[in-house]
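During the first year of the project, the team set up a workflow for recording each protein of interest as an amino acid sequence followed immediately by a discrete structure-token representation. This format lets reviewers and collaborators read both layers of information side by side without switching files. As required by the reporting guidelines, we include two representative entries from the current panel. The first entry is reproduced here exactly as it appears in our internal archive.
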Amino acid sequence: MEFDYRLREWLDTPSSNKNQFSSDTLYNELLLSESKKKIQISLAITYSCNLRCSYCFQQNYDHLVRKPITIEALEKILDKISLILYQNPEVDVSIGLFGGEPLLPQNEKIIDRVFQYCVENKLKIDITTNGSFLPYFAKKIVIHRSII
């Protein structure tokens, strides 16, 4: 989806160059592009991965920033999601985590915040993972199984 690519590009752009994109423009594009009753918001919380699978398209994107999203950037995204929820109470919104590998141990604070947000707002979440760190996150996944 073009919007998803542009949002990721905006998040990976150094703040000094962000004047070419605005979060409001991206938000408006999202609202216009998603006229259905369901919206899944995909969050690429990192482009890092612990594996190098031959079939994975991520390795073709060496230019992408490999650091996880910051808490500050995540909070801005969650604020936009809150606005979507407020303005569209009839829309079923869910959050998808992908990347790279979202379940890397260094992403734990980000994962915790996304889980907390989803619980508070009664949102479902799905996670695209290679499963390598499922044992590390097992307790959190079991605790939040009603939203996953």
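The second entry, processed by the same pipeline in the following quarter, appears below.
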Amino acid sequence: MRSIDFTTQIPQSPAEFLAAMARPEAWDGDASRVEGTPEAGLDIRASAPLDAEDVPAVAARLLPAGAAVQLRVRTSPASAQPVSADIDAQVPGAPVTMAARLEVSGGAGGSEVVAHADVTSTAPLIGPMIEAAVAPSVEKILRQSIEDIAQL
């Protein structure tokens, strides 16, 4: 398992960030389903094609044709302090998964997002090499996703 930790700032309050997560345009791809409300907590499922430029060569060889990322995001209610989002991501048929937790705290003037993610590969013998190769891409995508949602 390879862990990723970072902190970033967003211009929204935690409740505004959750409201942005509930918007369909927050989730690229063909299929997305948002259940719940920011006030009560969200359960989001999304699927998007995997962009080849986001996949290191060592991992690309293990991907099935037409690979897509499947996401499930579960959030705390907007009233929680801090607001949290648990994210599970997988590519069916690929030996890599990602589990992340975002904690958003702050107020009307902006918030801090603390992110922790674990990348895990089940590939025998080469799993640690895949995790090491994939982790920078996962961090880049996670950072970009937070930034994109914060701009909605």
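For the second entry, the following points were noted during internal review. DSSP finds three helices and seven strands in the chain. The longest helix spans residues 127-150. Both points are flagged for discussion at the upcoming steering committee meeting.
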